[in-house]
Design goal:
With 842 residues, the chain is of the alpha/beta class. The protein folds into 4 domains: 1-127, Rossmann fold (3-Layer(aba) Sandwich); 131-277, 3-Layer(aba) Sandwich (Rossmann fold), CATH 3.40.50.300; 469-590, no CATH class; 596-768 and 779-841, no CATH class. 37% of the residues lie in helices and 16% in strands. A 6-stranded mixed sheet has the order 3-2-4-1-5-6, with helices on both faces. Strands 7-14-11-8-10-9 form a 6-stranded parallel sheet, sandwiched between helices. Helix 12 (382-391) packs parallel to helix 14 (425-451), helix 13 runs antiparallel to helix 14 (425-451) and helix 16 packs across helix 17 (575-592). The protein is elongated. It starts with 6 loop residues before the first strand and ends with a helix.
Length: 842
């Protein structure tokens, strides 16, 4: 065509016309090329080359029509099609180019061309590749780059769904799809995103695909009137999609689709021979219908459309839907008002509106009748058409819903293309095309979402590869992806399959993840050691990362170098990476445990034979108490006085009420002991001075009435009390004033302070209140102290403890005959101011 000064080609499909239009525009420029279809019209003023659908070809071979230097008709053998054949026959007989006319079609058309166009020159173009029968194959074992042919939307969807599960998905091509959606689905296959395509017999025409194999899911179809077996020529038209140019192709059938399928589809030997050798029964007739009927009346129009042809090679066309609609509406009351050639012609043009919705004669006739009621008086208003288009401008819904909207918008696109039907035709046509494009995109998305599992498709192509060669990537958020598709995530160092994966995909995803896991884990371990140490935490005796345990920590008795037991998933690491990770975790843990150095010194001393058994026993008791133990439980009566300086150098404080290591009362060591699982008592994170009383106190606290106080602060209060007593003379029964500001400032309530001091032998005598009318400051409370005797033990609320008999001695308190602070033995002195303080502070 491009070699002539002008030309026109008629195509059987809108998408073919559009494809060739784009190619001719690239050669001749957009201003020289026109595109005319039922739903789209691009016609520059100086257009010389026309790409049209057969129905929209503006040539009928009669006077007054524009002539072209070149005219071609593609797929001319469709003149034998019962539905559209009469249109192709008319173009064969009437459309002529001034210089050249070309009819493109199957060799089965040759006898008809010779009979109808005797002067035609017949030129054959042989197929360069061979087509071979490959027998039956299960759907799950189809080779890549295969097409599966089915008939009916249900069968197409069923096969596409099975391929999604077995092979990651398939593109879907059906005649009911819009051309835009069909092209997008074909592009999925051509780009290699899926290796399979499921289609109806629409694949046999106008689609040039990179196919290796065509598998027939059925060999029968419903042609609108009955269910029949495909002809060998139809089979070959579809099977011929396999193989391109000089690359051979194969065809066969799909087996095992249904368990109760008694006879799966199989080609006969004659059909296989015909397809492989390209030998088909020639056409014996073509369908014809009067292309230029008379429009005197509706009856006359119907008579002409049903008139028989005058040549034996032509047969009357079966009643097409446009004629059926015309005959159906001819019986309506409004048909009596349609008179005159102009009105009858206009009515016939409305009846030829294609049934894009495929709803059948009766529903389509009702739609045409409503349209005629609006058109009989003139044009459709732009507002009315815009409102109908806007009603369809909705992208919600499933596949069937979107297909219905696309069919409806195609009807309005056809209506808007008519030159005398719609006001503001160009604007309305553009709106209709825009809505159709949006609906097509939405339908393509729904089809892809339902029938394409890109992740499975990628993994199927990767099966059998070396694990290290898989294109697996680890994202910063822990997702594991293959070519951008998520297959799972790393939780710590454990690979977890994507929870959204179906049961059938889990095994494949797990296999793919485990193949590449060693390399990914090594990458993750290297990142953790270099940049992620701040994210580690010590909890419940284990090192955890983002809530996932990496290693359990086992602390030895001497609190020396800890031992790590790595989590099972870390065993997947390569040896070098595993050792590096273990060393890194140990180094992190050693730095983390630095606040426990005082406890480590105590543990080492407790294992030192030179420390003496009494000191070691006290140290073991202190370690068991995690740095604090009451004097009553410390066993001080067995500890020689000369060992106390040794213990003080280790940080041990001998208090009036408790023995403790001051360094271990800080928040850091307490938190570490709790995190290691060594101290299972409640944790006081900040080691506050005073906390409310609890049934089970955190380590390092002693009870004080309704509160509890840290033992080192309790000792500070005791020291202040003994110093106040010493300043008052230190006699046993001396009464003295005690400033309680220290305890109150720490946070103890006054009553609880009295109880705390009472646990050390201090007694408070409240001063009498001022008499009524007296002036001046109130008298201070007076305090006294006497050492508690054995059997006179009291609880933290100042009450005698139950079950304790009076009399006897209590460990830890000095009686007569014990050595005093200077090391001299003798009776208990009563007059020395510091004797009692020395006795308690020991």
């Amino acid at each position: 065509m491009c070699g002539h000064s002008s030309g026109m080609i008629g195509f059987p499909l809108r998408l073919l016309a559009r494809e060739v239009y784009d190619r001719v525009c690239a050669i001749k420029g957009e201003q020289s090329v026109a595109l005319i279809t039922g739903e789209e019209r691009i016609e520059p003023q100086n257009a010389r080359y026309f790409c049209c659908t057969v129905e929209a070809m503006p040539v009928h071979g009669h006077a007054g029509e524009r002539d072209y230097a070149f005219v071609a008709l593609d797929e001319a053998q469709l003149a034998a099609d019962p539905e559209r054949g009469h249109i192709f026959t008319d173009r064969m007989l009437r459309a002529r180019g001034r210089e050249e006319t070309m009819l493109l079609g199957s060799a089965t058309l040759q006898p008809m061309v010779k009979a109808l166009v005797p002067r035609a020159e017949l030129i054959e173009r042989p197929r360069f590749s061979t087509l071979r029968h490959a027998g039956s194959c299960k759907l799950s074992r189809l080779p890549p780059r295969s097409a599966v042919v089915a008939f009916g939307a249900e069968q197409v969807y069923a096969m596409a769904e099975m391929l999604r599960r077995f092979r990651g998905g398939a593109a879907v091509v059906m005649g009911a799809l819009s051309p835009e959606t069909r092209n997008k689905q074909v592009e999925l296959f051509q780009n290699g995103e899926v290796d399979y395509i499921v289609a109806t017999d629409a694949i046999g025409m106008g689609l040039n695909l990179d196919l290796h194999h065509v598998a027939f899911g059925a060999l029968t179809k419903f042609d609108g009137r009955r269910k029949r077996r495909l002809t060998p020529a139809e089979m070959a038209q579809i099977a011929g999609r396999a193989g391109r140019h000089q690359r051979d192709g194969t065809f066969g059938t799909v087996s095992g689709m249904r368990e109760n399928q008694a006879s799966p589809p199989e080609f006969t030997e004659e059909e296989v021979y015909a397809i492989e050798e390209h030998r088909f029964q020639p056409l014996t007739h073509l369908f014809w219908r009067e292309a230029e009927p008379r429009f005197g009346s509706i009856g006359e129009l119907i008579g002409d459309l049903e008139s028989p042809p005058d040549r034996p090679e032509l047969k009357p066309a079966p009643e097409a839907i446009d004629l059926a609609v015309l005959k159906r509406l001819a019986d309506e009351p409004f048909a009596a008002e349609i008179k005159g050639a102009g009105l009858v012609r206009r009515f016939w043009e409305v009846c030829t509106l294609p049934d894009f919705r495929s709803v059948g004669v009766e529903p389509h006739a009702r739609f045409v009748a409503r349209l005629w009621q609006d058109l009989r008086q003139g044009y459709l208003g732009a507002d009315f058409v815009a409102a109908r288009i806007a009603e369809l401008d909705r992208m919600q819904g499933d596949i069937d819903t979107l297909q219905g909207r696309i069919a409806a918008i195609r009807s309005w696109a056809y209506i808007c293309q008519r030159p005398d039907w719609v006001l503001a035709r160009d604007e309305m046509a553009a709106r209709a095309r825009a809505v159709e494009a949006k609906l097509s995109d939405a339908l393509h998305a729904r089809l892809t979402e339902r029938f394409v599992n890109r992740r499975t498709a990628i993994l199927m192509r990767s099966l059998g590869q070396d694990g290290s060669a898989l294109p697996v990537n680890l994202e910063s958020d822990g997702r594991v992806t293959v070519e951008g598709e998520v297959i799972g995530r790393l939780e710590g160092f454990r690979f977890a399959v994507d929870p959204q994966a179906g049961h059938a995909d889990r095994k494949m995803l797990l296999s793919a993840g485990e193949k590449a896991l060693p390399g990914i884990l090594a990458q993750r371990a290297a990142w953790l050691m270099s940049e992620g140490l701040d994210a580690l935490e010590l909890s419940d005796g284990a090192i955890a990362w983002d809530g996932h345990v990496l290693a359990n920590v086992d602390m030895p008795d001497d609190f020396g170098t800890p031992r790590l037991t790595l989590a099972r998933e870390i065993a997947m690491l390569p040896d070098a990476s595993r050792k590096q990770l273990e060393q890194g975790l140990l180094a992190w843990l050693e730095a983390k445990l630095e606040p426990l150095e005082p406890l480590r010194k105590l543990a080492l001393a407790a294992r030192d034979p030179g420390a003496g058994s009494e000191a070691r026993a006290l140290l073991h008791t202190l370690i068991a108490g995690h740095g604090a133990v009451s004097r009553e439980k410390a066993g001080l009566q067995h500890l020689p006085k000369e060992l106390r300086p040794y213990l003080r150098k280790l940080g041990v404080v001998f208090g009036a009420l408790d023995i403790f290591a001051h360094a271990l009362l800080k928040p850091a060591p307490r938190q570490l002991l709790h995190a290691l699982g060594i101290d299972l008592r409640p944790l006081q994170d900040a080691m506050l001075p005073v906390i409310p009383e609890q049934r089970r106190l955190p380590a390092g606290y002693r009870p004080a009435g309704t509160q509890a106080i840290r033992v080192d602060l309790a000792e500070k209060i005791m020291r202040a009390a003994f110093e106040a007593r010493a300043k008052a003379g230190g006699e046993r029964n001396v009464r003295f004033a005690l400033d309680t500001a220290l305890g109150i400032s720490i946070g103890l309530e006054e009553g609880n302070l009295v109880r705390l001091l009472g646990s050390a032998g201090f007694r408070c005598q409240k001063a009498r209140a001022l008499e009524e009318g007296a002036h001046g400051p109130p008298a201070p409370d007076r305090w006294s102290w006497r050492p508690r005797r054995a059997g006179d033990e009291r609880d933290h609320k100042g009450r005698p403890e139950r079950g304790k008999r009076k009399g006897g001695r209590k460990a830890g308190h000095r009686s007569s005959g014990q050595k005093d602070r200077s090391g001299q033995s003798g009776p208990q002195k009563t007059g020395g101011a510091f004797d009692a303080l020395a006795d308690l502070l020991g």
